């Protein structure tokens, strides 16, 4: 057991702000976010809609909301983006205008990720995570497309931040907002089902002991029931019909073929190693940089595991094992689905739900050097 000095974290935080300067500490994150927004805006302005984006724009341009919902059923995604674009058409029909919701959602994702990292680490580590999320090439590209991935990342990062704040403050309204964000993710992309399972297991660990947070646990549990009902509706009313129509098999046999495990073509170890490396190389659009970031990610996970069950940020924060659970369970579930032939692993867009985890975990060793004295053992 490592004793925890309640003044250590506060003292370190004050020393950090004094070193950086109060104005710098306040405005520099906002400046990074603004530059990240401009980078996404330029990406959205510079290129024409590709065929897939044009299809999304066409399907959303309907005469009624009901027609837009029916049109959304022909895509391999939940209907939220099409319904949002149905109303967005009232503001304009240009490619840039149709990409603005993704630009805003991608920028909001960076901010929520920064706020969450501030909760579970410190400001310096959160700042590095913000820089990575704001300027990683794949994060910019996904935030400048008429596709579902920016919405998914936005709701996912909102879930992380709101769940942490709800637990720390024992706040029922924040937990309700967390549940609503989870519903938004489920309505944005089907890979959010992995996110829902991951967050469900993580929150079960995070809310212990349940008797001390009985009301908060009931609010969270009620939200989970709603999430299960929503997932069941989407699966039975949409995914099943897509599978019966053969759309998913057609995708798995063509451009997603490399991302589905096929016994006899590759062994399990080779498949998982190559596809995990693809997740990082696609995130950074560079083989060497992606490989180095994969090593940094693994280093962050190993550092967390070495801390056993110690708190990372403060007395009410998550333990290191809880963070490992949060960061790795999504990878494990996605790998299992790919090995079972049910969902691709390593494809550019289909692993969007994992990219925020990649951005966050690579800087945990940095947190060790700055705040190792502020870590305490869980009781």
Summarize the structure in words.
- There is one protein chain.
- The protein has 379 residues and is an all-alpha fold.
- It has one domain.
- It has helices at 6-20, 22-46, 51-60, 65-72, 80-88, 95-120, 123-135, 137-142, 149-169, 172-186, 192-206, 214-245, 247-252, 268-284, 287-306, 320-339, 352-361, 364-371, and strands at 310-311, 376-377.
- It has a two-stranded antiparallel ribbon with strand order 1-2.
- Helix 2 packs parallel to helix 7, helix 9 runs antiparallel to helix 10 and helix 10 packs parallel to helix 12 (214-245).
- The longest helix is centred in the middle third of the chain and has 32 residues, at 214-245.
- The relative contact order is 0.12.
Structural class: mainly alpha
The rounded Rg comes to 21 Å
> Cα distance, first to last residue?
9 Å
Number of strands: 2
Strand fraction equals under 5%
| Residue runs with pLDDT of under 50 for 5 or more positions | 1-8, 368-379
Major β-sheet, in short? 2 strands, antiparallel
Q: What is the count of DSSP helices, taking H or I runs of 4+ residues?
A: 18
* Mean pLDDT rating: 82
- Overall, the morphology is globular
Order of helices and strands: HHHHHHHHHHHHHHHEHHHE
Helix content: over 70%
């Amino acid at each position: 057991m490592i004793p925890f000095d309640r003044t250590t974290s506060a003292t370190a935080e004050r020393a950090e702000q004094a070193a950086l300067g109060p104005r710098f500490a306040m405005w520099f994150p906002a400046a990074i976010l603004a530059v990240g927004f401009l980078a996404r805006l330029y990406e959205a302005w510079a290129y024409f809609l590709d065929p897939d984006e044009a299809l999304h724009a066409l399907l959303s341009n309907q005469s009624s909301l009901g027609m837009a919902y029916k049109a959304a059923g022909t895509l391999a995604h939940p209907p939220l983006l099409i319904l949002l674009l149905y109303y967005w058409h009232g503001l304009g029909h240009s490619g840039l205008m149709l990409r603005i919701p993704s630009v805003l959602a991608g920028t909001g994702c960076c901010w929520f990720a920064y706020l969450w990292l501030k909760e579970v680490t410190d400001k310096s580590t959160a700042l590095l995570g913000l820089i990575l999320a704001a300027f990683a090439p794949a994060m910019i590209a996904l935030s400048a497309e008429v596709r579902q991935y920016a919405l998914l990342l936005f709701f996912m990062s909102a879930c992380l931040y709101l769940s942490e704040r709800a637990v720390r403050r024992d706040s029922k309204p924040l937990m309700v907002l967390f549940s609503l964000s989870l519903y938004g993710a489920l309505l944005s992309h089907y890979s959010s089902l992995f996110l829902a399972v991951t967050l469900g297991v993580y929150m079960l660990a995070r809310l212990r002991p349940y008797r001390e947070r009985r009301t908060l646990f009931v609010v969270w549990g009620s939200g989970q029931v709603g999430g299960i009902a929503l997932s069941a509706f989407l699966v039975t009313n949409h995914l099943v019909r897509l599978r019966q129509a053969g759309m998913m098999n057609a995708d798995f046999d063509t451009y997603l073929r490399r991302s589905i495990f096929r016994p006899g073509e590759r062994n399990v170890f080779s498949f998982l190693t190559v596809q995990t490396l693809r997740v990082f190389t696609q995130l950074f659009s560079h083989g060497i940089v992606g490989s180095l970031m994969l090593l940094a990610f693994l280093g962050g996970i190993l550092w967390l595991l070495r801390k056993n069950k110690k708190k990372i940020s403060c007395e009410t924060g998550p333990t290191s094992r809880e963070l490992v659970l949060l960061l790795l369970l999504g990878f494990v579930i996605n790998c299992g689905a790919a090995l079972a032939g049910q969902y691709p692993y390593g494809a550019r867009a289909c692993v969007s739900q994992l990219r925020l985890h990649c951005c966050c975990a690579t800087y945990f060793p940095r947190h060790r050097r700055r705040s190792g004295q502020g870590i305490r053992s869980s009781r």
